[in-house]
Amino acid sequence: MMRSIYPKKKFFIAPFILVLGCLSFIFAVPARDLGANTKADTISAAPVTDSSIAGMNVYNHFSVLYSSLKLDSLELSTEAFNYGLQGYRELMEKGEIKNDHLLTIVDFSLPSYKKRLFVIDLEKGKLLFNTFVSHGRNSGTDMATRFSNDPNSFQSSLGFYVTGDTYKGEHGFSLRLDGKEEGINDKAYARSIVMHAANYVNESVIKMKGYLGRSLGCPAVPPALHKAIINTIKNGSCLFLYSPDKTYISHSKMIGQPTLG
């Protein structure tokens, strides 16, 4: 069943939405591959007036955002992006999201030697981070293909999370994650699934092994970026771990059929 992905809160007036009604004025700064330990270039589009989006098909707005940020060149799948926006809207409507201008997507349709973590500022129409992220050791080697919500599975859990607070633990500065999909990722807290830094998430490991090191199920990120990423997305933003996994797609109650292509 197709769902509307137009949020009902300030997402209506966010500057990036204002971009989307006047295609002839849109421009984007080309994204560059800056390495694992570098903040991604921010990519933005020229603002237009609110009235210019009247009557446009809502799905085209997000298609234009995907195009203007050149997310296709960064290999973020259109399905991951569109599902992510659907789940974001669902969480917004339920009042789950406080840090409501951000959407973070981990695209497990990509291998671990690709930059598959994307932090998008929906309000400003900017890509804030694009870097590497690990998956669980029992989810696969270079590709994450197996997923679990079970304790001690050492597998990643797909689906939608809301970010929590930060703390200093075994892996240093870390971010708690609250899984919002029953039976899919709702045991994340009990499993201690958090975002943290890991030395095995870097390009030198990729050059040596051909893929990143793996976690016990946590989405671990590069040490040089982890504080910046965590401080950006903490305290109530939407995080989506995606895979074209048929079991997840058929069981998730937060996504419908993709509409962006």
CATH topology description: L,D-transpeptidase catalytic domain-like
> What is the N-to-C order of secondary-structure elements (H for helix, E for strand)?
HHHEEEEEEHHEH
Name of the CATH first level? Mainly Beta
Radius of gyration: 17 Å
Overall pLDDT, averaged?
82
Q: Give the structural class.
A: alpha+beta
Domain count: the total is 1
What form results from the Cα inertia axes?
globular
Beta-strand share of residues: 15-25%
User: What is the subunit organization of this protein?
Assistant: single chain
Helical amount among residues, as a percent range?
10-25%
Number of DSSP helices? 6
Flag low-confidence runs.
1-59
CATH architecture: Beta Barrel
Strand order of the largest sheet: 3-2-1-7-4-5-6
How many distinct beta strands?
7
Summarize this, please?
With 261 residues, the chain is α+β, with helices and mostly antiparallel strands. It has 6 helices and 7 strands, in the order αααββββββααβα. β4 and β5 form a beta hairpin.
